[in-house]
Amino acid sequence: MSSRLASRRNVMAAALIAPLFLLVALSFLAPLATTLYRAIEDSDFSLALPKTSRSLQQWDGVALPPEEAFRSFVEELRQAQQDQAAGAILNRLNFEETGLRTLLLQATRASGRLAEPYRDSMIALNPRWGDPALWRLFKRATGPFTSLFLLRSLDLKPTDQGVAKAAAQDAVFLPLFWRTFEISLVVTILCALLAYPVAYTLSILPQGWANVGMMLVLIPFWTSILVRTTAWFIILQREGPINALLMAMTLVDQPLTMIFTRFAVYIAMVHVLLPFAILPLYSVMKGLKPDYMRAAASLGAPGWKRFLRIYLPLTMPGVAAGSLMVFMLSVGFYITPALVGGPGDQMVSSFIAFFTNVSVNWGMAAALATLLMAMTGVLVVVARLVVPGFRSGGVKA
Amino acid sequence: MAAPAAPRPRRSLIEASLYAVTALILFFLVAPIFVVFPLSLSSGELLVLPTPGYSLRWYEEFFTSNRWLLATWNSFVVGLATMIVATLLGTLAAFGLYLGQFRGKALIIAILSLPMVTPIIVTAIAMYFALSLVGLGSTLTGLIIAHTVLSVPFVLLTVLASLQTFDPNLLRAAASLGASPPVAFRRVVLPLIAPGVATGALFAFATSFDELVVALFIASPGQFTLPRQMFAGVREFLSPTIAAAAVLLIVFSALLLAINEMIRKRAQARGISSGPTP
C-alpha cells in the first residue's frame, strides 16, 4: 500500500520535474553537446568534395594519389566554387596550413586550362601539387573526425608523423590560457585580500552600521556588470575624472593612459567580483562564536597569534568559497576585458567570440570552449571537495 | 585577574585603521557607480568631469530615441517573459524534487543548475548555433528561451531552500481534509514558500535584465536589449546618453534590491527561508 503511494508520489514528482528538464535538455544540454562535438567534427571537405574524399580515403598515402583523385578534385572544387560552397573548405584548409587558400584559388582560377592527365597538368601549374604530404593533409581533412582544433588550442598540430608543435605564428593559445589563468589569479588574490578586512569589520560592527555597510556591498552586487564596467571606462579614459584630478593637482602634466591596459582590467574586474568574495566570508565570520577567541585570550595568546592560529583558520572556508567563486567567474570573463582592456589583455572568452563571429572558424571556437569548460569543471570539482556545501552560482547568487 | 594585557591605545589604533581600510574599500565599491550620476546630467557633449553645466538633455535623448526606447521595451518584454516561464517551471520542478522519493535527486539538481556554472560565453555560442539552426536566431523568442535557461537555476535553488522548512505533515493534513494535490499545492504549499518563489522570480528577472553576452550573439538590432544597446553605445558612439541609461539601470537595480530586502525581511519575520540569498 505505502509503496503504491510512494510510486504515485514519484509519478507526480516526475511530471512536475519533466517540463523544466525537457527545456534544459533541449535548449541547453543538446546545444552544449553539439557545440562540444564541433570541436572534433570535420566534414567541410567531405561534404564539398565527396568523390575526392572517397578516392583519397582509399589511397595508401605513400606515393601521389591516383589520377582519378586529381580529376574529381578539380571538377568538384570548380563546382564548389560555382555554388559558392568553397569558402568553408578554403577556410578549413588554410587554417591547417597558411597559404593553402592561395594554392586552391590558383587551381580553381586555372581550372579551365587544366586537362587530362590532371595530375601532370596540376603539377605543371604549381609543383606543390606533386607533394604527397599535401595530399596526406587533404586525406586527413576528409573526416569524419579531427584532432586539429583541440591540438591547435594547445599550440600543437597533427602531422603525418603524429603530433608536433604548431608553427610559431600560430602558437598563441597556450599563452592565452596562461594569461587567462594569470589575470584570474591576480583578481582572485586581490579580491580575497580586500574582502577580508571588509567582511571582518562588517561582522563586528553594531547591527545598524553593519546593515549600512552591507547595503554598500549589495548595491554594486545588484548593479549590472556592464554598467559598472562602463563606469570604469568613463573614469579611466584619458579625459576622465581621475586624469582631470591629477592634472588639476599638477601631479602629472599630461593625462595617464589607464584605459585599454591590464591595470584597467584588474581594477574593473576586482570591482565587479569583490562582492562575491565578501558575502561568503561575511556569513562565515558572522556565524563564528567569539568563545574560541576568548579562550585563546584567556590562555594568554597575544592578538596576532590569536588571529593567525585561531581566527584565520576558522574563517578559511569563507575565503576558499569566495575565492573559488571569484576565480571561476574570472576565467570566463568577456565583457570587462573587451571594454576596458587592450588587445593584449583579452582572455579565452574573447577568442571564442572572435572565432564564432569574426573568423567563422566554429571548430576552433568549439575547441576553445571545450577546454574552457574542462577548466571550469575541474574548478567546480575542486570547490566541492575543498569547501563543504559549496554551491556555485552565477552573477546573482 | 586577566589584566587587559593589550594596551588600549594600540588596540584602538588597529581598530581605527581597520575601519579606515574598510571605508576605503567600500568607497571603491560604490564611488564608480555614483560617478555616472553627474555625468548623465552634463550639458556638454563629452563624458568629462567637471561637467560644463547641468541639463536633462541626455535623459530627453534617451526617452525620445527610438533605439533606446526599443531596447527598453525589449528588455522588459524579455525580462518579464523569462521571469514568468522560469518561475513557473522552476517552482514546479522544485516541488517535484521535494515530493519525489527516488535516488539521483542531487544529480538532477546538478544537471538543472549546469547553466549556472557553465562559462557564459560557452552557453552563448551553444545557444547561438542551436537557435540559428531552428530559425530562432535574431528573435525575441530565442532570447527568452536562452534567458530562461540561464535564470531557472536561481528559481529552482531558492524554492528548494524554502521547501526545506516546509512541514510535509501539512500536505497529509490537506489530503485528509479532501484537498486534491493541485488544490493543496495552491492553498497550502504556495503561500508558505511564496518568499522563495518571489525571490527566485526577482533573480530571474534581474538575470535576464542584466544579461549581455548571450544577447551579443543572438540579438540583431531589432532585438537589442538595454545592456546590448549600451554596449553598442560604449563601443561606437560614446555620448552622455550612456551615462543617463546607466543611471536609469542603477536606479532600477536599487529598486530590485529593495524589493528583495523587503521579501527577505517579511519572510524572516514569519520564520520562512526566502532562499540562499545573502
Keywords:
heterodimer, A: 397 residues, mainly alpha, MetI-like fold, 2 domains, two-stranded antiparallel ribbon, 19 helices, B: 278 residues, 12 helices, 76% helix, 0% strand
Describe it for me?
The complex is a heterodimer of chains A (397) and B (278). By secondary structure, chain A is mainly alpha-helical. Chain A is built from 19 helices and two strands. Chain A has two domains: 44-142, no CATH class; 173-386, MetI-like (MetI-like fold), CATH 1.10.3720.10. Chain A starts with a helix and ends in an 11-residue tail after the last helix. Mean pLDDT of chain A is 87; it is low at 392-397. Chain B is mainly α and 278 residues long. Chain B has one domain (70-270): MetI-like (MetI-like fold, Orthogonal Bundle), CATH 1.10.3720. In chain B, 76% of the residues lie in helices and 0% in strands. Chain B has helices spanning 8-40, 57-64, 66-99, 105-112, 114-117, 120-133, 140-163, 168-176, 181-210, 213-218, 226-235, 240-270. In chain B, helix 3 (66-99) packs parallel to helix 7, helix 7 packs across helix 9 (181-210) and helix 9 packs antiparallel against helix 12. The longest helix of chain B has 34 residues, at 66-99. Chain B starts with 7 loop residues before the first helix and ends in an 8-residue tail after the last helix. The chains are: A mainly alpha (397), B mainly alpha (278). At the A-B interface, helix 1, helix 10, helix 11, helix 12 and helix 14 of A face helix 1, helix 3, helix 4, helix 5 and helix 6 of B.
Strand tally of chain B is: 0
Largest interface: A-B, 91 and 91 residues
Order of helices and strands of chain A: HHHHHHHHHEEHHHHHHHHHH
N-to-C terminal Cα separation of chain A, in Å?
42 Å
List segments of chain B where confidence is low: pLDDT < 50 over at least 5 consecutive residues: 1-7
| 3D shape of chain A | elongated
What is the correct CATH architecture of chain B?
Orthogonal Bundle
Kindly, what is the distance between the CA atoms of the first and last residues of chain B, rounded to a whole number of angstroms? 41 Å
